[in-house]
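batch_manifest entry 22 of 60
target: Thymidylate kinase
source organism: Halomonas koreensis
requested by: lab member K.T.
priority: normal
notes from requester: please return tokens only, no post-processing; we will run our own comparison against the previous entry in this batch. if the run fails, retry once and flag.
--- input ---
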Amino acid sequence: MSRRGRFITLEGGEGVGKSTNLAWVADHLSARGLEVVRTREPGGTPRAEAIRSLLLDPADEEPLDVDAELLLVFAARAQHLARVVRPALERGAWVVCDRFTDATFAYQGGGRGIAAARIAELEAFVQQGLQPDLTLLLDMPMAAAQRRLEGRLDRDGGARDRFERERGAFFEAVRRAYLARAAEAPRRIAVVDADRPLAQVQAELARRLDACLERWG
Ligand SMILES: Nc1ncnc2c1ncn2[C@@H]1O[C@H](COP(=O)(O)OP(=O)(O)OP(=O)(O)O)[C@@H](O)[C@H]1O
Ligand SMILES: [Mg+2]
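--- output ---
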């Protein structure tokens, strides 16, 4: 019987370095001989990625209702949990995921203004008690993260998605909601100052991960 794997999520606002560090975290764990599945939300399966496209599409001719947005996020999550995350954890693999439900509390809660209690109901319904074992919350001031994002958009020639088009106040609210969530779950959520050179951020991520590896045995 293999032991259940661990579920690690990376969180934070736009441009804080989640994707950059996700690859690094996955490599760090693989180097310790663990089977690692890297994935992301919303998405992670073909159908869930199709829901992601609906969520990110700016399509201004039909604004997306905030409750519809919330339900789409959880629909994608149910699919991702059923098809990818739970099977991986059950066979003993570790799952490293770019965003999860803390992002819903931050974006749909803090950003869109949906009550946390309503999000928590859907969280209980869809997750049935499943929570990440560790969440690495990359935190930095919005303006600095925006500059990084602009650097990336310039290099990609990429267009802004429906969230990236939001205003500063939206991202400030997202950041506050993330930090409030971290304050409520300090054992699970590690707040990492992301406004530093990558090597320093990754040194702290390594310390946090290795402490968990030790604790979990
Ligand atoms: N510590 C850092 N210092 C400087 N630049 C960084 C750092 N971390 C990431 N970057 C750069 O910032 C940009 C955004 O990083 P990345 O795409 O990983 O962020 P993200 O959190 O995944 O963004 P998004 O929310 O848009 O998915 C990239 O160009 C990346 O190379
Ligand atoms: Mg990313």
